[in-house]
Amino acid sequence: MSKVIKVLGTGCPKCQSMTAVVKTVVSENNIDATIEKVEDIMEIMKYNVMTTPALVINDAITIKGRIPSKEEVLSLLK
User: Fold this and answer.
1) pLDDT digit string, tens, across residues 31-67
2) Which fold has domain 3-77?
3) Active-site residues: which are they?
């Protein structure tokens, strides 16, 4: 089953870095996933996230307010 990954962020440099890390991990490990970038502040608020970037995997918030390592993202996706 494909995973749905959302990167919540308004397009700040940290948000862009997180998106890059997630995309790299997904492609390097051939993970079946859809990556969505959520930049709409109203949409982000629905997740009750106050600090961005945030990583949402299958509607569960996994990381908030920091850029994860590739290893961390990979372990979350396994």
Assistant:
1) 999 999 999 999 999 999 989 999 999 999 999 999 9
2) Glutaredoxin (3.40.30)
3) 12, 15
DSSP letters along 2-63, please? -EEEEEE-SS-HHHHHHHHHHHHHHHHTT--EEEEEE--HHHHHTTT--SS-EEEETTEEEE
Rounded CA gap, 3 and 66, in Å? 21
Strand partners, 49: none
Reduced to 3 states (helix: H, G, I; strand: E, B; else coil), residue 64 is: strand
**CB of 65 closer than 8 Å to CB of 8:** no
